[in-house]
Amino acid sequence: MAYIYFDHNATTPLDPAVLEAMMPFLHEAHGNASSFHSPGREAREAVDLARKQVASLIGAQPAEIVFTSGGTEADNHALRGVIARVKAGAGQPPHLVTSAIEHPAVLNTAQMLEQQGCAVSYLPVDEYGRVRPEDARSAINDATALVSVMLANNEVGTIQPVAAIAAIARERKAIMHTDAVQGLGRIPVDVDALGVDLLSISAHKVYGPKGIGALYIRRGTRIAPLIYGGHQERRRRGGTENVPAIVGFGRACELAGELLAESAAREARLRDRLEQGIRERIEHVRINGHPSERLPNTLNVGFTFVEGESLLMNLDIERVAVSTGSACSSGDLQPSHVLLAMGFEAEAAHGTLRFSLGRRTTEEEIATVLDVLVRVVARVRAMSPMYRDFIKGRRPAAASKA
What we know:
With 402 residues, this protein is an alpha/beta fold. It contains 14 helices and 12 strands. Strands 2-8-7-6-5-3-4 form a 7-stranded mixed beta sheet, with helices on both faces. A 3-stranded antiparallel beta sheet has the order 9-10-12. It has a two-stranded parallel sheet with strand order 1-11. Strand 3 (95-99), helix 4 and strand 4 (119-123) form a beta-alpha-beta unit. The protein is globular and about 75 Å long.
């Protein structure tokens, strides 16, 4: 059978219309956007248009968009750039507030800053993976320079109360950043409605090319460059612009805005059908994440008595692509830091799969995946000593959550 791709939170296929927009700048229109001759001006006009397209999708001004190499660089720029400005001034060490379930691009950067003398507070989450605004209020103090809480979690899909947290940060005169990489193109993203000063996004999550992203920097926000060099990006990010990728990002954002409502409704319907089928046809499962405040395309499921990696490999043999969590953590045998933060024991955290649907997902694929999943779970459980012990009545059913 054809390969079924249910891992759109890891990356999305390049939209044909995006490729079409990029092609001229991969061939004939090869000018440097910083050059003053005609080919250079043509490239500059294309970059300017893309900047408008990206800004429009998130309700920003074009001048507030800084193109980066992706979401990871945007997150690094946000955290390191703000802390660098604070450290350059006089006073006590800067303080950063973030959450325990952030993407590694934020968490690892926060840990690096902590090693360099920055104080960091990691906000806990509830059983659904949601930050409580009151916890943010308690953590923010007079030394807090930056609050960074993701818009939507990449593993369980839970949407965070970013607007409420941003309002608290604003009261305490702290800068607010959100990693909106997983939310872009799946839920409405508006920088003013969210009240954020910095926002990270990436093209390859919205059917654009890999290797290009952007950081929204609200006008007046004090932030140091991450990459020094030439005058590009208003001296906020040095380096020759990747014109084809920028053009692709712009077109991908334009399409995402046009298709957002239709795609979200359709993917939510298919996700619910997949969830219902799993609940009805497979015993001892748990749906992880918030029941309503979650991305429309994301379903995270815990399967008791089995390892998620075993399920993933068996599904791959059956030509079905899913994930056990974040693609940036693949190869790491440690249990998901997101599920651990939600209160799961390591054994339960290991037995999870993430299904993330996309624009091209069909009802037929949902039906096929359900059939394959029922067969694979039964096969893997049959080899599980834990499941055999449960069947024999030697131990009670292991809870999927601590």
